[in-house]
Task: structure prediction
Amino acid sequence: MCDDSRDVAKRTSKEESAPAELQAATQPNFEAAISRLSTIVEELERGDLPLEASVSLFEEGILLARKAQGILDQAEKRVEHLLGFDNSGHPIVEEHDPDDA
Result:
């Protein structure tokens, strides 16, 4: 097993065993998720990783892509809320509650 695959395996097993609260506290923001996803794509496109390392990276990439999509979905809801209009055509002006997203 090469060093790359051992590092990925260690990183994956640590992430899987971490408590949910810790994982939530260390979740990447959108930009960090996209940046890491880009790095993963580059590593996979090189094609020089062992199968297990490639699968682990692919799995990490899927999780990051889902996280980024969730962040985008929340942002879209916020924008829709901010651009909302009532039945008489007047803009709806109110504070956005991030817990509603």
Notes: The chain is about 70% helix and 0% strand. Confidence is low (pLDDT under 50) at residues 12-25. The two ends are 43 Å apart (CA to CA).
